[in-house]
Amino acid sequence: MLTAFLKWVPKVSVPKESLIEKVNCVYIRSIVMHLNQIYLSLGSNVGNRSEQLNKAIELLNESGGVKKISAVYETAAWGNTNQPPFLNLVLMMMTNDDSVNFMKKLLLIEEKMGRVRNQKWEARIIDIDILYFNSEIINDQELIVPHPHLQERKFVLEPLVEIAPDFIHPVLKLNSLELLNNCTDQLQIKKLQHA
To answer: What φ, ψ does residue 132 adopt, rounded to 5°?
Structure first.
């Protein structure tokens, strides 16, 4: 098809090879422009927590490109505090999946890693939450984005500020740093290194 296109424009002043490169470059740019930018929060408080986070990052990288990863933070459990402390991090990745398909992939990753859902805020091998999906506002039965509790959780906001201090919450219209400064969460968090 590209060859037919080149025959159709024979009076182009650039060599055909250059035109092919330019068309390919435009095509590649259009693919990149359709990638979705997603911020995820990952947490683990069962087993080798650091190993669980690394495994989740590896599996996420298969579903798109992980571009930024915060340091790891240790914190007491939020919500149900009668359980072991969590290791948490935030990452940013790109994918061409839509939000519904991407959520399905996250649930499969959690299941593959051994997560079983019995009750809210229980101890877990891995927990992967979508914080932001581009700057979209999604309110479905299966998915609410931005994450409805992100502005209340220091263990999410500290690592988010580390990798995206200026990202604007599409509902609250505040950036990550402003959200952290306004957060009243009293849980102590300790910054570690990368998982």
So the answer is: -135, 145
Residue 119 shares a structural domain with residue 168: yes
Q: Where are the alpha helices (DSSP H) in 82-141?
A: 99-112
53 shares a domain with 115: yes
CA–CA gap between residue 122 and residue 125 (Å, rounded) = 10
What pLDDT digit, counting tens, does each position of 158-190 carry? 999 999 999 999 999 999 999 999 999 998 899
Do residues 102 and 95 touch, judged by C-beta distance below 8 A? yes
pLDDT category at 142 given cuts 50, 70, 90 is confident
Based on the fold, state whether residues 100 and 18 are members of the same structural domain. no
* 43 and 27 together in one domain: no
* Helices and strands in the chain, H and E counts: 6, 8
Domain count, the chain: 2
Whole-number Å distance between alpha carbons of 49 and 88: 9
**Whether residue 23 is found in the same domain as residue 62:** no
| Alpha helical stretches, state H, 113-189 | 154-163, 176-182
Residue with the two structure tokens 């037919």: 4
Same domain, 91 and 177: yes
Quote the CA–CA distance of 137 and 65 in Å, as a whole number.
Answer: 22
For residue 109, the enclosing domain spans 36-191
